[in-house]
Design a protein that fits this description.
Number of strands: 8
Distance between the termini: 36 Å
Strand content: 5-15%
Radius of gyration: 16 Å
Number of domains: 1
Order of helices and strands: EHEHEHEHEHEHHEHEHH
CATH class: Alpha Beta
Bound molecules: SN-glycerol-3-phosphate
Structural class: alpha/beta
């Protein structure tokens, strides 16, 4: 079942830049049937633009969303634990894989892990053919995570997450620093507070390989319109 090697997972998703990810978090608007409805909006926008949009729903929604169709909207778990077996209450990489996920988020600022644990979870993900998108709250942390060879790193200043103040306008020099210091073999995403096309355009102009968004989409009155605006400039 598991792959013996720990080489980076190769997936065409990683070749189509910019990489776009929508994190559903645990927002009520992105739970259960409402998560499925949002996933369908992501799929329809992705298909319209001929792109892929990664979506990361709650664990309990992975199966229903992946089954509904994920060719244009690859599904990532929001986290994985390490163990398979006697680990009641844990989220195993095998379980998310079998539910239909092709990758996992790790070390989001809302689900932090000690640095050595990040390395172990990346390894566990690779062993199951899952891509890892690891979050970092600083350039220093990005460089430590880079050593574990995840497929993607997302730089997100935690204080801007959910703030509506975008990383592109509040921390442009840190985006430049991030993309300069982390090797392009790892896809380098940025996120936090992105709310409009200008925020996305600026992040890409500064050299980011992709972007991540949550609240501006999941909590929007008209999520399709906002997502269309973000994807159009990507
Ligand atoms: O995972 C992306 C997320 O943390 C950004 O959140 O609400 O600031 O777009 P938000």
């Amino acid at each position: 079942m598991s792959r013996p090697e720990t080489a980076p997972v190769r997936d065409p998703l990683l070749e189509h830049l910019p990489i776009m990810i929508i994190n559903f978090k645990t927002y009520e608007e992105a739970t259960g049937e409402r998560a499925l409805a949002l996933a369908r909006i992501c799929r329809s926008v992705a298909m319209r633009f001929g792109k892929r949009i990664i979506i990361s729903p709650q664990f309990t929604d992975i199966y229903r969303i992946a089954r509904d169709g994920s060719a244009h909207t690859p599904v990532f778990a929001q986290h994985i634990d390490d163990g398979i077996g006697k680990f009641t209450g844990s989220i195993s990489p095998l379980a998310v894989k079998e539910a239909g996920a092709v990758g996992t988020l790790l070390n989001h600022s809302e689900r932090r892990l000690p640095i050595e644990e990040i390395g172990k979870r990346i390894k566990a993900a690779k062993a199951h053919g899952l891509m890892s998108l690891c979050f970092a709250d600083s350039i220093e942390e990005s460089l430590k995570i880079e050593a574990f060879a995840p497929e993607m790193i997302a730089y997100e200043p935690p204080e801007l997450v959910g703030s509506g103040i975008s990383v592109s306008t509040a921390r442009p020099s840190q985006i430049t620093d991030f993309v300069t210091k982390v090797a392009p073999s790892v896809r380098r995403l940025v996120g936090a507070g992105i709310t409009n096309a200008g925020d996305v355009a600026k992040a890409l102009e500064l050299g980011a390989d992709g972007w991540g968004v949550s609240s501006a989409f999941t909590k929007a009155k008209d999520p399709e319109t906002i997502l269309t605006e973000l994807v159009r400039v990507s």
